[in-house]
Amino acid sequence: MRREIPLIITAVVGIIFVIQYFIPHWPFSKMSDWFSDWFSIVAACAIILGALNLMKLSFLKVYDRKEGWGYAAVIIITFFLMAIVGIAGGRDFRNPGTSFDWLYNYVYIPLSATMFAILAFFVASASYRAFRARNFEATLLLVAAFFVMIGRVPVGYTLSSFMPEGWQLSNLATWVMTIPQAAGQRAIMIGIGLGIVSTSLRIILGLERSHIGGGK
Amino acid sequence: MTTRTKEIIALVAVALFVVIFYIRKVAGRGAIEFPTWLSMLVILLILASLLWILVLTIRGRLIERRVVFLYVGIAVALPLFMSLTQKISVSPEVKQLYDAIVELPEGSKVLLSFDYDPPSAPELQPMAESIIRLCLQRDLKLIIMGLWPQGPQQANLALEKVFDDEDIAAKNLQYGVDYVNLGFQSGNEFVIQRMGGSFQSMFQSDYEGTRYEDIPLVRNVRNFSNVDFSVNFSAGFPGTVEWVQIAVDRFGLDLGAGNTAVQAPQMYVYLNAGQLNGLLGGMSGAAEFEDVADYRAKGTKFMLSQSFAHAVAIAFILIGNVAFFMSGRKSRLKGD
Predict the structure, then answer these.
(1) In whole angstroms, how far apart are CA B296 and each of A11, B86, B170?
(2) Cis before B92 (ω within 30)
């Protein structure tokens, strides 16, 4: 029964969600609302589970002095710091001028932005090393990337401002984005959509069981 | 000179720069700004050094990865101190979003969903600020929410910034009457689906804990049919894709979007199909919106850095390809 009950729940919920999309009336609309509420509750609990799991793994890493345990220690300290400051702040802990707000604005935001900004360096370095005109397809990609990269910034407009309207670099970048790029994206999205439909059907029918775990 | 020494010198240079910048700020002398001649000189020096790297590459000497990092750092940081102005070309999708907002009659309700967190803020915060400013300037009512936990806090930062503007402050806008922040709700796309039936089922109280029915602005807002327009600021999942698939396709919401540059290409499909009523892509989208709204702020200021960074990346791609063809020629010559 440990496997059958989750499979039955999955099948019932899946079938009702499919039906309510096409028949959005009672009783399916009501059932869909119940399941959506349950999803929100489960998602909220998952945040707590995620935090507890992070703490467990970090504590174990520090306890066993595994490689990089110092970073795990930083995670534990900052986790408790933010949690304690937030709880001590009471109901209005996020309001401007509170300690939590200060930590959010002057620690969390700059650190997050810094981590994301590092991408710029790696993207440029990776482009230098890997973006080569090895064959026709790669050359095509390179030329498209050139037009989009230069056409999407004002310097592209400045460089091609002498060209007639419609032939400037910014116009070419817009054309690349709206026509060939969108066509490629659409093909990918249709492929993904078909994949989602077939996988969902397999899960609803109980043919795909990997999501409930437990090996074979 | 050893690598370690070079690293220490680079760190000391950065630290000195930061200290000088901080001292100037504390002393109230404002931001450092290069005069135009110095800006041009810096640009010429960078161009000359890039040409020198190209010559070295042609001679068969490949540059290290650290050099690329250094140039990207310079390309991003130095333009922040330059006083050069650039003409911005407004793309059709940005104009479409601007037109959609300005065509709304006074008092229309606009739903803004902040589905991002601080890492994406440099791109999305400028567009959020300029859209909020435009809406408030045109006396539109704002209903703010977030599907990401930090979203509503980012919204508050944007509101704080907009209220610093004298024109907006002079309007004496009231929380709960002219704008409201409903806060975060967990549940990803299911939140959007439930909002299609009832906003109140997902947001029983606002960010500050006031009960939904006690907020004058949303008291009569039952679902998407009571919202005139919506803008989603998105950095991933859940975001614009989910808003289009559920709120637009199923409930007929009129939606515009502001996305990170990485995510924006995926949205052109929805834009072409008419499911999105306007799109701002990355910082360039923010700068274009500021230009069309005639309010130049962070987006426009940072575009100089982005122009430089793109130019440097293109230069290194060209140099990399020169190196690739040179090495190919050499190997072919050896083969012969």
Answers:
(1) 54, 12, 20
(2) no
DSSP secondary-structure letter at B214?
G
- For residues B77-102, average pLDDT: 90
Q: Report the pLDDT value the prediction gives residue B336, as an integer from 0 to 100.
A: 45
- Residue A139 domain-assigned (yes or no): no
Q: What is the tally of structural domains in chain A?
A: 2
Grouping H, G, I as helix, E, B as strand and the rest as coil, residue B318 is helix
Q: What is the pLDDT of residue B333?
A: 56
- The verdict on a CB contact (< 8 Å) between A33 and B86 is no
**Do B284 and A153 count as a contact with CB atoms less than 8 A apart?**
yes
Helix H segments across chain B? 3-26, 36-58, 65-77, 92-102, 121-137, 151-163, 166-169, 189-197, 199-202, 240-242, 264-272, 282-292, 298-335
Nearest Cα residue in chain B from A147? B314
Give contacts of B 296-325 with A, CB under 8 A. Answer: 303-304, 306-314, 316-317, 319-321, 324
Q: Which of B265, B303, B313 shows the shortest C-beta gap to A154? A: B303
Q: Taking the complete model, does pTM exceed 0.90, yes or no?
A: no
Range of the domain at A99: 94-130
